[in-house]
């Protein structure tokens, strides 16, 4: 991606802070003066900062937007995130400044649930480890039980967060793999109304019960002040000995040092992680090399189809919101603060 600006003083300005497909960029350029500058790239930082003072709209993802940036952007009306998670945005500051936040719920739900289920399979059946066993030439005779995995079908799945992705994950587990599902969420879901196909197959339980009864626990809830560090020394200790932990949410919901201790003490048999406290995962993180960790580079929604759908939805959101119309992906905080 190159830093680009198409100057024309009278047009309203939009700042694109992460790569956008050409088609979406063209839609923006047809109506707005567009600067493309990703502040995570040193070569783009100056252009990003120079664009803030005139920007009315911003679109992108994976960049923490700070109050200091908002201070530099007095004309900003809309931020359109190419993500469903909104933990990169200072929600209270946006609210108090009257800046609209949009996101991309729904279009990535099924793909992210696929990724989380893939991590469940990979961690339980040791798929990555055993594929490397073949690739590295260690398959010289039939494997013995030291390399056996664990069944997935029929095991109890605990889901932390039972919204769009949690319910899509439950469908895969309950309907495809005959797994009883326990879930922990801020409130009980009316399954008969929202997911009738899961009636009788999922149960809402307090966190402690989900942790102590599930064979596999998968986190798919947002990162908020209430969920930061949710999985820590005490909560890992409540999990079944030999259980598997999967994180498809955000890295910071987990105390990574406590996770490593839980793996090394034998509390956890394995962990499957798509997200990390620091991304990309630092080279010296012990999670990179741990034999019982399957680590992915935050690919929950990373398919061609889904990333295109997210970019298209985020672009529509931005154009609508800047036109003063109601965008499909308006981020609205629920009745309870996050
Ligand atoms: N790994 C990846 O690439 C991806 C990760 N995600 C993460 O997944 C999250 C969930 O996405 P959706 O299912 O679309 O969201 P959603 O809003 O539909 O569902 C969130 C669920 O979490 C629950 N929840 C929220 N705060 C809670 C708390 N303090 N305690 C217990 N439960 C709580 C809610 O009650 C709800 O059941 C996103 O916020 C994002 O962080 C989303 C997409 C891709
Ligand atoms: O949408 C999100 O929140 C992601 O993590 C990436 O798709």
Q: What is the secondary structure topology, with strand pairs?
A:
Blueprint: E1 4-5, E2 13-16, H1 22-31, E3 33-36, H2 45-51, E4 55-60, H3 67-71, E5 78-81, H4 91-97, E6 100-102, H5 109-125, H6 127-135, E7 157-160, H7 164-177, E8 181-184, H8 191-194, E9 202-204, H9 207-213, E10 216-219, H10 233-238, E11 243-247, H11 256-264, E12 268-273, E13 293-295, H12 304-322
Parallel strand pairs: 2-3, 2-4, 4-5, 5-6, 7-8, 7-10, 8-9, 10-11, 11-12, 12-13
Antiparallel strand pairs: 1-3
The structure holds 1,4-dihydronicotinamide adenine dinucleotide and 3-hydroxypyruvic acid.
1,4-dihydronicotinamide adenine dinucleotide binds next to α5 and α7.
Protein name: D-glycerate dehydrogenase
Pfam family, one: 2-Hacid_dh
Family: Belongs to the D-isomer specific 2-hydroxyacid dehydrogenase family.
């Amino acid at each position: 991606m190159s830093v680009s600006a198409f100057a024309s003083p009278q047009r309203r300005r939009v700042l694109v802070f992460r790569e956008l497909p050409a088609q979406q960029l063209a839609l923006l350029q047809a109506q707005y003066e567009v600067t493309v500058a990703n502040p995570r790239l040193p070569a783009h930082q100056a252009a990003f900062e120079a664009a803030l003072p005139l920007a009315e709209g911003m679109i992108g993802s994976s960049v923490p937007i700070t109050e200091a940036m908002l201070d530099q952007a007095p004309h900003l009306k809309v931020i359109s995130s190419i993500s469903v998670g909104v933990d990169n945005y200072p929600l209270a500051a946006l609210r108090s400044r009257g800046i609209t936040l949009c996101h991309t719920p729904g279009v990535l739900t099924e793909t992210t649930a696929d990724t989380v289920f893939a991590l469940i399979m990979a961690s339980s059946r040791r798929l990555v480890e055993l594929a490397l066993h073949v690739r590295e030439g260690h398959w010289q005779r039939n494997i013995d039980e030291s390399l056996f995995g664990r069944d997935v079908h029929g095991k109890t799945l605990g889901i932390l967060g039972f919204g769009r992705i949690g319910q899509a994950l439950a469908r895969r587990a309950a309907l495809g793999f005959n797994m009883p599902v326990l879930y922990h969420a801020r409130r009980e879901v009316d399954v008969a109304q929202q997911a009738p196909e899961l009636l009788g197959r999922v149960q809402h339980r307090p966190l402690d019960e989900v942790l102590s009864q599930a064979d596999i626990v998968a986190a798919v809830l947002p990162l908020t002040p209430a969920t930061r560090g949710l999985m820590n020394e005490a909560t890992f200790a409540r999990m079944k000995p030999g259980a598997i932990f999967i994180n498809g949410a955000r890295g910071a919901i987990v105390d990574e040092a406590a996770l490593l201790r839980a793996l090394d003490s034998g509390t956890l048999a394995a962990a499957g992680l798509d997200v990390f406290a620091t991304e990309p995962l630092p080279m010296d993180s012990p999670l990179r090399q741990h034999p019982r960790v399957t680590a992915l580079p935050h690919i929950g929604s990373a398919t061609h189809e889904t990333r295109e759908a997210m970019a298209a939805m985020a672009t529509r959101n931005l154009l609508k919101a800047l036109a003063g119309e109601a965008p499909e992906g308006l981020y609205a905080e629920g009745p309870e603060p996050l």
